[in-house]
Write a structure and sequence with these properties.
The protein is an alpha/beta fold. It has helices at residues 40-52, 69-77, 142-154, 171-174, 184-191, 199-208, 249-262, 267-281, 294-306, and strands spanning 3-7, 11-18, 30-38, 57-64, 80-87, 94-100, 106-111, 133-137, 158-162, 179-180, 215-219, 225-229, 232-236. The strands form 2 sheets. It has a 9-stranded mixed beta sheet, with helices on both faces. It has a 4-stranded mixed beta sheet with strand order 3-2-6-7. Bound molecules: adenosine-5'-diphosphate.
């Protein structure tokens, strides 16, 4: 049985719903608020575990504060193995302060907390083998992400890197990545170019610039995703849905991609399924709470077929 290891962050999310996002110097009143579980590592692990439904093991390698018992229990309930989640002595669990406006657009302020104390020594020596998937992001110290990528690649695992937030991942890290999954902003930050206004502009950018990774899957919000692999470029359109809350869409996408690759599906098929899973996730409130099961994605895929 293939396994998925996610090395990444765990956060407590505080979500404030507002009519309009505050501008600098402005105070706005929330029209609703709630607390949830988040962090890209935890989110992507939950997305993969929910879609996997036990077909493969999903473990999370992370660090939390002593205040995270409820978070660990929730992850376990979703089928995520938390045996490699370490506890920091004196630091709180990471926190994300998220504002979401009525159209579903969001801004996020992160307090890294215990995530910033994750060290290379906290990584398991065995980070997957051929057929397994290692998935990492940017919300932990860069040297830990780099070490996890190098260790998993050396063992023959398929390495997915979601460069979020996008800091300067060196070519030494990127060249070991099988599938890089940035959103449009992250892609442009990595390339050091302005964000193109159209999808055609993105495609031109991808044709002109190269990153030393195996394949690229760029997520484009309501416009779906673009896959760039050895066969060329493929646009995968997103189904039309009513977006309620886009927090966690990218994480659902990454978790779904990992789930499919662990099942041995080809990357392009994996991206098509990830677009469906992520579209479903924006129709519900919250990050982890809105992530679908495999059956829900199957049903949605069938509905899409029927309306064609
Ligand atoms: P992030 O959440 O990292 O900013 P995106 O906004 O690109 O990333 O969203 C990730 C994926 O979620 C997209 O590729 C798409 O599949 C899906 N998605 C996001 N917003 C919508 C939307 N409004 N309608 C349909 N799918 C969406």
């Amino acid at each position: 049985m293939a396994s998925i290891t996610v090395v990444g962050s765990v956060n407590r999310d505080v979500v404030l719903q507002v009519r309009g996002l505050p501008r600098p110097g402005e105070t706005v009143h929330a029209v609703g608020s709630r607390e949830g579980l988040g962090g890209k590592g935890a989110n992507q692990a939950v997305a993969a575990a929910r879609l996997g439904g036990g077909t493969h093991a999903v473990r999370l390698v992370a660090k939390v504060g002593g205040d995270a018992q409820d978070i660990l229990a929730s992850l376990e309930k979703d089928g995520v193995d938390t045996g490699w989640v370490a506890t920091a002595d004196r630091t709180r669990t990471g926190m994300a302060l998220i504002t979401v406006d009525e159209p579903g657009e969001n801004t996020i302020v992160l307090d890294g907390g215990a995530n910033q104390e994750l060290t290379v020594a906290d990584l398991p020596l065995e980070l997957g083998t051929s057929g397994d998937v290692l998935m990492a992001q940017g919300e932990i110290p860069p040297e830990v992400t780099g070490a996890a990528v190098a260790r998993a690649a050396a063992r023959g695992a398929t390495v997915i890197l979601n460069p979020a937030p996008a800091y300067a991942f060196g070519d030494d890290v990127l060249k070991r990545v099988d599938v890089l999954v940035p959103n449009l902003g992250e892609l442009c930050a990595l390339l050091g170019v302005p964000v193109p206004a159209t999808r055609g502009g993105v495609e031109e950018l991808l044709a002109a610039r190269t990153l030393p990774v195996g394949a690229l899957v760029v997520t484009l919000g309501a416009d779906g995703a673009i896959v760039l692999d050895s066969e060329g470029m493929l646009h995968v359109p997103a189904p039309r849905v009513t977006a309620v809350d886009t927090v966690g869409a990218g994480d659902t996408f990454c978790g779904a991609l990992a789930d499919s690759l662990a099942r041995g599906r080809p990357l392009r098929i994996a991206a098509e399924r990830a677009v469906l899973a992520a579209a479903l996730s924006v129709t519900g409130v919250g990050a982890q709470s809105a992530m679908p099961t495999a059956e829900e994605v199957d049903q949605f895929a069938q509905q899409q077929e029927n309306t064609r």
